[in-house]
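To the team - Muraymycin D2 complex, inputs and output below.
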Amino acid sequence: MIYHLLYPLSDTISVFNVFRYITFRSVYAMVTALVLAIIVGPTCIEWLRRLKVGQYIKECGPDHQQKSGTPTMGGLLYGMCLLVSVFLWADLTNPFIWLCVFVFVGFGLVGLADDYLKVVRRHNDGLSARGKLLGQILVALGAVSVLVALPQYSTKLMVPFFKHLHPDLSWFYIPFAVFVLTGSSNAVNLTDGLDGLAIGPAVVCAACFAVFVYVAGHVNLANYLQVAYIPGVGEVAVFCGAMVGAGLGFLWFNAYPAQVFMGDVGSLSIGGALGFVAVLCKQELILAVVGGLFVVETLSVILQVGYFKVTGGRRIFRMAPLHHHFEKCGLHESKIIVRFWILSILLAVLALGTLKLR
Ligand code: 57M
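Output:
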C-alpha cells in the first residue's frame, strides 16, 4: 500500500520517487518482515503455547524427547509477517505478486490442515500423504495454469550454461512446473527436522532468487546476461525480500534451542513459494543447485526407503533424512545445522555464478 499511496505524490514530494525502485522496496520489505517478526514473535509463540499446539515427538527417532511440547505451527508467524510486508511494499497491480501470494497461502492451507489434524486433533499422522499431495497439486495446477496463460510468460525451459538451448515444453510445461512446486514444498518439509535447519537455507534461497527475478525483469540486464526477459517479474524481488525478512525473523525464535517449530503450515508454504519463484524467473534447474540441500535430504529418503524395500530391511544411512544420519553419527544438532547453512551459502554463490557463465 505504501507504494500506491506515496509514489503518486512524487511529483510534488520528489523524495517519494524512491518508491518506484524495486531494490529499495525489496530491502524495506525485508526489514519490515524481520522487525515485525521479532516484535510479534513472543506473543505469537505464547498464543500457540496457550492453544497447546505442542509438538508430539515420535519415539522411533533420534533423541528429541526434550523438544516435546515445543509450540509448532510457527509458520503462521512467518506467513503473517511475509504477507503484511508484501501488501505494504509490493506493487499490488502486478499479477506475479498475486500468483506468489496464492501459491504461498494455498500450500500453507494444506500444511495447516495437516498440522491441525496432527497437533490440535491429536490425529498423529495428520493428512494422508495422498491427501497432502493432492492439495499441493491442485494449488500448483491453478497457479501454473494462470501463469502460462499470461502473454509475457514463456513455456521455454532455460538450461544453465547453454544460452541457445531452451526447448519449448508447450503444454508439458504445466506438469513440469507442478512437479517443481510440489517437489520443492515436500523437500523443505522433509528438511525441517532440526532447529533452523530448513529456514536457514530457505532464507539463502529467497535472497538468491531475489537477484534472479530482478535480472529476469530488467530488459538490459536480462539481455546482457542472456537470461529470459519476463516483463514485470522483477517485482517478485519484493516478495523474495519479504521472505528473507520473515525467514530471519522466524529464525530468531527457531534457532537452537528452538522456541517454536514452523509446522507443515510453514514448510509447505515456504517450499511451494520458492519453487514458484524459480518457475517465474525460468530458473527451475538452478533451483536444484540453490536448494541443493533440500534435494540431497529428499534423495536420502528416496534412497533409504528404496534400498530398505529392495534388500528387505537393510539401510544405507543410519536414519533418513540425512540430518538424522549425522545425528546418529554423534554430531551435535547445532553443528549439523550451521554446516548445512554454510553449504547452502556456497551453493547459492555457485548458482549466482551461472549468470555470468553463458
Ligand atoms: C517432516 N518432521 C520432523 C515440526 C516441523 C518418509 C519419512 C522420511 C517421513 C519423515 C517425516 O515424518 N517427515 C515429516 C519432518 C518433525 O518436525 C515437525 O514437522 C514440521 C515440518 N513438517 O515444523 O513441527 C520433528 O523434527 C524435529 N524438529 C526440530 N526442530 C525444528 O525446527 O528439532 C523440527 C523442526 C520434530 C522435532 O523433533 O518433532 C520429523 O523429523 O518428523 N520421517 C522422518 O523424518 C523420520 N525418519 C524416518 O522414519 N526414517 C526411516 C525411513 C522412513 C526413511 C529410516 O531412516 O529408516 C524421522 N523423524 C522423526 N522420527 N520425527 C526419524 C523418526
